[in-house]
Amino acid sequence: MSAAPATDAIRSRIDELTATRTEANAAWFDAEAERLAQLCHAMAERFAAGGRLIALGVTPAERSDVRHVSVEFVHPVIVGKRALPALGLSAEGGPLPAQAALAVEPGDIVIAFGAHAQTVESVARARERGALTLGFEAIGAEWELIAPGQDAYVRQELVETAYHVLWELVHVFFDQRGLLEGRLERRKHDSGKSSFLYPFLAEGQTDLDAVLTDVADSARMKAAEIGELRAQTLRDNRDALVAAAGALRRVFEGGGQLLALGNGGSATDAMDAVADFREPPTGRGWPPRRALDLTEDASILTAVANDIGVEAIFARQIIAYGREGDALLALSTSGNSLSVIAALEEGRRRGLASVAMVGYDGGRVAAEGLADHLVVTRSEHIPRIQEAQAGAYHVLRELVELVDPAAAAPAT
Questions:
Q1: 208-236 vs 238-253: helix crossing angle, rounded to 10
Q2: Rg from Cα positions in the chain
Q3: What is the pLDDT of residues 167-214, one digit of tens each?
Q4: Cα distance between residue 171 and residue 189, in whole Å
Q5: Domain boundaries in the chain?
Q6: How many beta carbons lie within 10 A of that of residue 255, not counting itself?
Q7: Helix pair angle (208-236, 152-174), 10° resolution
């Protein structure tokens, strides 16, 4: 199914959204790179001493970041790197201060999303208890990394890149034992299969300033990489995004709903996309749109995985919930996830319009033409793919409200 080309006005708006992201990304990470490096070191010392990361957030969008940062630390995709303890606390568990009071210990790291009163109170109590605290708003945390600008979507994308960079680069200090308080120095280090991530690692385990400088430079490099990749994703997939927006607009106006899914970090991106459709940013004047997160119910996911198989965790829900006239948003960094492929196949059998956002070369999703509208982020680096996909579904959310659903109808 081919996509109708973007109109001049829509094309101009996508270019504007791309430029805003590129400029904000470059400026913020250039300004904050040294602090990110210092925070990586502080976090590594906490982890090395047995501390845990505890993420906090209240709103549905904040919950997606809470879950995202937790899964990345617990289930690292960096070859040979350790799983680090991380917990996510959000509104479904009850009042946040009460949850934090039970969970936070003096040696922990608390990372807070948003500026809800419950979050502010939780951070204050955690700081009093001796936890290292990080906030992305002015909430009284020990460390505050406040993303600039008025666009909530752009700020979220910067925050996501920031915690990905923290997760990636905190491991540098585990490989430099002499730089962690109370740890024995190891004079030589072979970064092995992870050397492409940390090209500067060698010896230097007594020169903290030099390593901090190198880590800051690496943070800037990663920020430059995502800036370029996000721009490529939006530029190369412009017509696909416009056509997908038209398809979703027609679904919503016809009374249908969007079903979103993904695995791991992509599951948290599905959470974020659903939150954005259900609860648009204030001041935009956009209506809430019907959307369902197929990653949300752990009892359904584990029941299907246990009784049928992991490949069926989303397809089974599409059988239950999906109706002709609905739409499906599938997120995958590889394009090869069996559960995503099965969901797209089931969605097509049931007459759902489908949008897939995939990385690498598009994998089987692209090769087998499993989605009506395909957005490919051409990278093999999973954190950068997820960050670029966040930009893509945020832009898609805006285009749904801007596009003329009739004019954006796919050509046949």
A1: 70
A2: 21
A3: 999 999 987 766 786 554 444 444 555 555 555 444 446 689 999 999
A4: 13
A5: 19-183+208-225, 237-402
A6: 10
A7: 140
Tokens representing 119 are: 């979050």
CATH superfamily of 237-402: Glucose-6-phosphate isomerase like protein; domain 1 (3.40.50.10490)
- Tokens representing 74 are 């617990």
Counting beta carbons within 10 angstroms of the beta carbon of residue 193, is it exposed (0 to 12), middle (13 to 18) or buried (19 or more)?
A: exposed
CA dist 210 → 32, 35, 200, 260, 290 (Å): 17, 14, 10, 44, 51
Torsion of CA 215, 220, 221, 225, to 10 degrees: 140
Single pTM value for the model:
0.91
Tens digits of residue pLDDT in 348-359: 999 999 999 999
Of the candidate CATH numbers 3.90.660.10, 3.40.50.10490, 3.20.20.70, 2.40.50.840, the domain formed by 19-183+208-225 belongs to 3.40.50.10490
- Give residue for tokens 């027609």: 250
